[in-house]
Every structure is written in C-alpha cells, then in structure tokens.
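Hi everyone, sorry if this is the wrong subforum. Our group has a chain we'd like a structural model of before ordering constructs, and none of us has done structure prediction before. Sequence below.
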Amino acid sequence: MQPKYDLTSVREQFPIVNESIYLNHAGISPIPEVTRRAVVEGAQVLADFHGLDRVFGELFVNARRTAASLINAAPEEIAFVQNTAEGMNLAAHSLPLQPGDNVLTCNQEYPAVAYPFLNLEKRRGIETRVLPADGGGLTVDLLERHADARTRVVAVSSVEFSTGFRTDLKAIGEWCHAHNVWHVVDGIQSLGAEPMDVKAWHIDALSSGGHKWMMIPAGQGFMYIDKARLDELNPPFAGASSVANAGNYLDYDLTPQPDMRRYELGVPNLLGIMGLVASLDFLQSLDIAAIDAWTLHLTDMLIEGVDRLGYEALVNRDPARRSAIVIIRIPGDADNVKIKERLKSVDVKYAVRGGGIRLAPHCYNSEEEIARVLEALGKN
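Answer:
Right subforum, don't worry. Here is the predicted structure as tokens:
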C-alpha cells in the first residue's frame, strides 16, 4: 500500500530518515525542510531589516488564514499562543464560571487540560470532576452519568496522549451544545495528522501547541474561540496589542480588539509564526485525511505485528477510537527493558507513556520502517 501522496518526495523533507526510525511524533516532531528554510529566510529578514514591515504584515494575515483552514474556522477566530497550556489557561480563566459550577474531564488528560481547571477550583471554587476513563478517554456515556445542573464545561483532548484514544468530538460536541455546556478541546495530539472541524463538532474553544503532529517549531501554536461566543468571555490579561486602539499607547483604553486578537498581548514570535505557515501549508498540501489514513495503516501494521509476536498493544480496538498512537508492552516487565533494548538496536525513537512504549508514526514514515521495528522486536 502507498499513501495518496508521493511518499518518496515527502521523506526527502526529513533528513532524520537517514539516521533513525523516528516514531515519537506524539512527543515532538522534526520540522520539514520547507519549514527550516522559511525560518532561516525569516531570520535573514530580521538581520537585514529590509522589507520587514511588508514581510511580517502579510505574515499574520496568512498565518491566521492557514491555521483557520486546518480546523474549519474563520481567520478572526484565531490567536497565536506559545503552547497548548497557554491557550487552555486563557480559555479557562475567561469563562463565565461561578463558585459551585463544575467542569468534567477524565483521568487520562495531559496537565495542559486538567491543571487550568484544577487551578480554578483552588482560586475560585469551580469544581473539577476528574472522571475514570471509559475505554481510554472521555465519552458521552460518562458525561450522562456525571453531569448535573451546575456542569458548565467539558474539557477534553482530541486524542489522549497516554492511551491513543481518539475522542468522539462530534458526539461530545453535540451533547455540550444540547446542554449549553462549553466544549473546550486540547488539539495537540491530532492537529496535523487527523481532520478537525470545530463548527460541525460544536467546539467552543480549542488550543494547540505546534511541536507535535503539526511539525511547527517548538514554542508556537494557536488557539480558537467561536466568534459567536467570544463576547461571553472576559480575557484575564491585557496588553498593547489586545486593545481596540492598539498603537495609541497613552490612551489606556481597555476596550478589547473585536476578534481573537484580544488574546495577543504584545510582540509575537515572528519566526515561530513563519514556521507555522510553512508547516501547515506543507501538511495541508498532502491532505490531512490522507495523512490520517496512512498513519492508521502503519499503526494497523504495528498492532497486527505485536499481537503476532506476543506483545501487548494497549489500544482501544474500536477502529473509530484509534489514532496514530500505539503503546506496546510485555506483561510483567514493568520497565519494558527487553523492548527498549530491541528498539535501540535499529535506533527507533519512542517515548515511555501509559505503562509501555509509545510509538507514533507520521506522514513520512514507511511500511519498511514498521517492518524493521517488528523484525527488531522479534518473538517475545
């Protein structure tokens, strides 16, 4: 099988394929060559200072448009943030919550999802209900069993980092919409590798760093808030860029920008945003749905192979709930020593998560690489 794009030319964008079998995209991804060149060219513009206003004036327009197209949003619904946690905190502290209100999440969430709301519990008396995961993540059934009249927010990851569970964001979004509950999503473990539709899935707020599947230089990401709900929020911070009369520095008028720029406080990461545009243009040129199909094919190979070899694949076996993350282990080997040693023999890059070894292929990985991984593992 081959992906719908030219795998050979895509692999040329990633020199690391000549050194390692890189399967840690759920941790941090190498950036493609097209992105490296864009950032280098941006650095040269900053060094020369020729055409700076023109280059970076166009950059922000292009970046908002590019990020918006990835998730089916409008450009004015996009703000630039450093990482997922920044955007999740901005959303959490903006929400119109009152003491006694509650937030539903699950016990497999990364700290960027849980901590902002646990912090609200400590500071403002907002209850955070951490529910036991259902099949690896949060489900509508859990919401039905644990929500009440004071439930105001559901906070969830699009894919769970420690289980690979692909959340049914559409079903959860429909539930939230029907119950007038805010649907707040951490998108970092799917954006760039799986399709996302914030409108069809009734997502009210979303945040994502870019250093995983979006292959953006670390320290750059974006957040989204539905413009229909923007004025319900009260941004917790203000700066020179976040106000409507930005540029009139001695006016001291806190009237916010009319769109998501109200969450941008000052000078942004210019080189990071150049990297964002380059990486997202590259990935969208391949078609995100095609990437999703290819990575699921590769993880099918992994799961079938480790099953055959006598290892345990810690994944939800429902195809609709699977992602490009597979966690494998040997029952009884708490430290996974044998797996680590065997993967090291062919220089596989992985992460230790969820009680096992997490493997996460992306658009440029090949069937041959997966076959080499399985050959190195051998029989348990």
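For your construct planning: The two ends are 27 Å apart (CA to CA). Residues 38-285 form a domain with the Aspartate Aminotransferase; domain 2 fold (CATH 3.40.640.10).
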